[in-house]
């Protein structure tokens, strides 16, 4: 099994193909999403700023990675990205943003990851794909699964204020979001 906490040095970097160009300024639809803390989160109704990092899937130490996972640009790194948001959580909150992660994985799977990684914020499940479809988020296919491509949104009062895409390397994303928040105070 692979060490999910470390990024291999030879990962291919994703390219900006324009698939997120429509997101800045977009109003988030009122779609409550199940969260790992047992709540339902409607991102459209949250006041102020929210950092929403969107990732393909969290791996488990006892499972093999999907086929050719390290060869898919931007696929590898969900655990390091989540851990970076965990490690910067207090600073992100101090900069005025709440934090959520979002994937298409089921809530029960995400709950295991949130416990194992000691995340101080909830992960949101879009297993039904309604949020993905409403925002026209970029996806890719692997092993018969449709997964989200890695993108981070800064939401402000229910609208997309800023987009980080492509996100690479994923373990630096939280620091990049924090730097942007500090440079653009609310």
Automatic annotation (TrEMBL):
Organism: Deinococcus budaensis
Key words of the record: Antioxidant, Disulfide bond, Oxidoreductase, Peroxidase, Redox-active center
Cellular component terms per the entry's GO annotation: cytoplasm
Stored Gene3D superfamilies: Glutaredoxin
GO biological process per UniProt: cell redox homeostasis; cellular response to oxidative stress
InterPro entries on file: Peroxiredoxin_BCP/PrxQ, Redoxin, Thioredoxin-like_sf, Thioredoxin_domain
Protein name: Peroxiredoxin
PANTHER family reported for this sequence: BCPB PROTEIN, THIOREDOXIN-DEPENDENT PEROXIDE REDUCTASE
GO molecular function list: thioredoxin peroxidase activity
Domain Thioredoxin as annotated: residue spans: 22-186
């Amino acid at each position: 099994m692979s060490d999910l906490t470390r990024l291999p040095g030879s990962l291919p970097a994703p390219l900006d193909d324009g698939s997120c160009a429509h997101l800045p300024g977009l109003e988030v639809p009122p779609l409550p999403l199940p969260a790992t803390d047992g709540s339902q989160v409607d991102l459209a109704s949250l006041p102020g700023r929210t950092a929403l990092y969107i990732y393909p899937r969290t791996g488990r130490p006892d499972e093999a990675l999907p086929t050719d996972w390290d060869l898919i640009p931007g696929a590898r790194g969900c655990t390091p990205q989540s851990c970076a948001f965990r490690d910067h959580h207090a600073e992100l909150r101090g900069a005025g943003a709440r934090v959520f992660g979002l994937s298409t994985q089921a809530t029960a799977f995400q709950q295991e990851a949130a416990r194992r990684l000691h995340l101080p914020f909830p992960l949101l499940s879009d297993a039904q794909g309604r949020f993905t479809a409403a925002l026209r988020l970029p996806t890719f296919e692997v092993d018969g699964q449709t997964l989200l491509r890695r993108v981070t949104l800064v939401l402000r009062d229910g609208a997309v204020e800023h987009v980080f895409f492509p996100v690479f390397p994923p373990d630096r994303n939280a620091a990049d979001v924090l730097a942007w928040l500090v440079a653009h105070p609310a």
